[in-house]
Each structure stands twice: as C-alpha cells, then as structure tokens.
Here is the input.
Amino acid sequence: MNKITLLFFLCLMTSVVFCQTNLTELFRVEGLWTKKGENNPYTGEFKETYKDGSLKGTGAFVSGKLEGVRVQYFLNGKKRTEKEYINAYKQGKSKEFYKDGTLKMEGSFVDNKETGTWGLFYQNGNKKAILTFASGMQNGPYFEYNEQGVLVKQYYFKNGKPEYSDEFIKLSSMALELSRQFKYEEAIQLYNKVIELNPTVAQVYFNRGACRGNSFDFEGSIKDYDKAIEIDPQYMEAYGNRGNAKINMYTTMGTLNPSAEQTVSSCEDFHKAKELGDTSIGTVDMIYIHCR
Here is the structure.
C-alpha cells in the first residue's frame, strides 16, 4: 500500500486530526454535524474558508459536537476568536481580537457560562474594563478605564445589577449621619475610606467637599467639587457649592465684598449651575450680589 493510499485510508477509518474537512461538506442532523453522504456524526478536524479561499476558521468535532480549540480568522489572516469547547459547550479560555491582532477580550467559560475575571482591552493595549462573572451573570467587582488607563467607573455587581459594595454603602451612610450631627472631621475621615474603596463616585467627593467647607477648609472643599465635576460634568449642585466656596475663601479672610476680578470664577460656576437648572434662592442671590 503506497503512502497516499495509506493516508486516505487513515482519514477514512479514523478521521485523524490532520484530515481537515471543509465545513461546507458538513450539515446538521438532529443537532449533530454530519458529513454529506454519511449517517454517523462526524469526528475529525474541519476548516472554514472565505469565498476567495483564504482561511476563515478551524476546529474539530467529536461525534458531531465541537471539541477542543475553535479558531476564527479575519480576512487579513489575523485571529478573530479563539475559544475552547467540550461536548459543544464553551469550556475553558476564550479570547477575541481586533483586526490588527491585538487582544480585545479574554476570560473563561464553565459549562457554556462566563465565570471568573474577564478583561476588555482598547486597541492600544490598555485595559478597558475588568468584569467578574459567576455562572454567566455579572457578580462582584467591575472596573472601567479610559483609553489612557485611568479608572473612570467602579461598581460592585449583584445578580447582574450595578451597585456598590456593602462596605462602601455602610461607610457612606455612617459618614452622612456624622455630617448631619455636625461632626465634620469624623465624617471626612470616613469619606476618605469610602473614596479608597471606590474613587469614581461624584457624590462622595461632593459630600466630603461640603464637610470640608463647613470646617472652613475651602481649598480642600474646592478640590473635592473639582473632582465631582470631573466625574460628572452635569453635577449642578457641585457648581453652585464650588462657587460659594470660592467666595467664602475671601469673605472668611475679611474681604466682605470681593472685587469683580476675584469673583469671575465663582460667577462662572453660579451661571453654570443656573444653566443646568439651579433656580434656588441661594444661587440666584449670589448671582445678583456678585455677578452683576
């Protein structure tokens, strides 16, 4: 028996892995991939091709079901996806790529459901998001970054819904209660811990800024309002409070009637607050007194 006949015989009898069948030669029979003209589900490697004949994907079937590593390619020859299967279920590592070959997403499956930590990436290679799954549902920490790698959002998912961690909620509530009791320094210390847990919540900076302002730390207060506005540029109350803090920096030092030059920045904040819908007497009065 010559070598060519022997190889054909092995492919025919055992469907060994080097014998790739084009996916166009297979079709589903009761959900199982079967080769045309055969009755038994197909076992062996397969490939997919684009219309121009270039490789679109590779994989393998065992008794008509996906098994092992399944790879798909872009037209440019770069990998598009790489996923592991057992008995037709996604099981193990999973990756997706951009057209230039850089990693877009990676994680793991158990019984066809996302599990553990997943990573999403920008095309420049920086992290886009870190997600945590349990049985196909988001549960646990979530971190989102901008293209420069700066953390912009942080949540703690519970049953697929974005919330905050129990510790975050507990400390935030305690800090708010202390501020209501005029215990501003104690409240500030708790807000410091809250921000360590999650530095992406505008309201926490706003609340700490209010406590600092009530403690006559107007510079610290302004910095907190700056951060709150950086996180949420539409934060109407933060603009109004920041304008007040800027005025108070002068009035508490004895300058009861700051000059027009000294109130320019404050007036910009008051007008921005008004533009966003602030019609409170405090803001209207400050505009009347300082911004004419």
Summary: The first strand starts at residue 21 and ends at 22. Residues 78 and 271 are 53 Å apart (CA to CA).
